[in-house]
Amino acid sequence: MPRLSVTAMPAVPQTYGRQLGWLLLALAAMFALLPFHAFAQAAAPAAAEAAAAPKLDTGDTAWMLTSTALVLMMTIPGLALFYGGMVRKMNVLTIMMQSFAITCLVTVLWMIIGYSLAFSPGNAIIGGFGNLFLSGIAIDSVNDLAKTIPESVFLTFQLTFAIITPALITGAFADRMKFSAMLWFIGLWLIFVYAPVAHMVWGGGLMGEMGVLDFAGGTVVHINAGIAGLVACLVIGKRMGHGKSSHAPHNLTLSIIGASLLWVGWFGFNAGSAAGANVNAGMAMLVTQIATAAAALAWMFAEWIARGKPSVLGIISGAVAGLVAITPAAGFVDPMGSLIIGLISGVVCFVAATSIKNALGYDDSLDAFGVHGVGGIVGAVLTGVFAKAAIAGKDAPLGLLDGNGGQVLTQIYGVVITIVFTAVVTLIILKIVDWTIGLRVDEATERDGLDLNLHGETVQ
Q1: Are 397 and 203 in contact (CB under 8 A)?
Q2: Sign of CA dihedral 236, 318, 252, 105
Q3: Total domains in the fold of the chain
Q4: Residue 136 lies in a domain
Q5: pLDDT per residue over 1-24, tens digit each?
Q6: What is the distance, to the nearest Å, from the Cα of residue 278 to the centroid of all Cα atoms in its chain?
Q7: Measured between alpha carbons, how far is 315 from 332 in angstroms, rounded to an integer?
C-alpha cells in the first residue's frame, strides 16, 4: 500500500488526527477479529450440539456392567439351582439344562431380532426392524432410555431380563415337556410375547404411553412369565401321579443356594434398572432388601400357623415372592411402602401356591404362577398405591397415597392387558407346537425320568 504524504493532504487539526488514528485502530481491530467472530458464530451451534449430546459416565457404566452380570447369575446358576432342588432326582438335570439352554437360545435370538422388536421404534404393540442383527449398534451408540451408558451395555442388560423370563416358565411344566418342544416354545414365545410386552411397557408402546409404572419388570417379567406358565401347565396337563404319588423336592440344599443367588442377583435386577449409579439405584436396593425379608417372614409365619411348622421351602418361596412384588415398585416406593408390599405379597402368594392351587386342581409344578404371576399382580397394583413422586424424582403425584388415585386404575389396566395378551398368544404358540411335534414326553419317559431318556445322563 503506498505511503500517504502529509503534503498531499489538507491540514488536519491535531485533535482530529488523534481521533482518526483511534478510529483506524478500532477498524483494524474489528477487521482483524472478524474471522474469529465468524468462527465463534459457526462454533456456537456445534458447541450447543455437543453439550446436548449424551455423555457416557464411567461410574454408571461400571454399575450397569456389574448389574448385568448379577442378573445373568440369577438364571445361571441361580434359577437352575432353585428349580433343580425342587424337582425329583430323576429330573434335576433336565430342569437345569432347560435354564442353561434357554440362556443360549435367547442370547442368539435377542441378537437377531429380539432387541429390535422390543426397543426399536415401531407401533403401540411391537417395535420395528431397525436393529435386526444389532445393525446400527456402534461402539459409541447410546439408547435414549439409558443415555449415560453404551448401548452395548444397555442391550446386554435387557438381554438378561429376556433370558430369565422364559426360564421362569419352565417351573410350571417341570417333569413333562419334551426338550425339543421346550426350545420351539421358548423361541417363539420370546419373539411373539416377551418382545411385544417389553415394547409396550418400556419401548415406547401402549402401556408406557398409558402411564403404567413398572420399574424393573413386574408386568414384563413376572406377570408375563406367570400367566404363560399357568396356560402351559393347563395345556400340557398334570404330571403322572399328581395328587397320588410324592413329587417332593429331592434336595432343598440346592434350592436354598439358588434362592440366595436370586436374592443377591436381584439387586442388579432392581437397582440396575435405575440405569446408573445414582440415588434411585440406592433406594431401589434398600426397598428390595426390606420387601424380600418381610415377605419371607410373612410366608413363614403363615405356613407355621396353617401347618404347624415353618419349612425351608416356605421361607425361600416367600423371599422370591417378595422379590417379585417389589420389582415394579422398586424405583417408586419408600421403605415403609416396601415393607407393606412385602408382607402382603408373602401371605397372598402363600395362599395362591397352596390353598387356591389345590382348590382349582391345576398342576403348576414349581409355582411359577403362584409366586411370579400372583406376586407380579400384587406388586403392580400396590405400586399404584404406594408410589411417591419424591422417590421417583417427579413433580406430579404418582400413587394413591401421594394424591393420585387414578394410578391404581392405570396399574390394573396394565395388568389386564398383560394377562389377556400373554394368555392368548401363549395358548396359540403351545397349540402350534403341540400340533406339529407334540409337547409332552411319552408315559415311559415321564415314569422313568427325563434325565436318562432325554439326555442320557443321571445324577447318582
Answers
A1: no
A2: positive
A3: 1
A4: yes
A5: 333 333 333 343 444 344 434 433
A6: 18
A7: 26
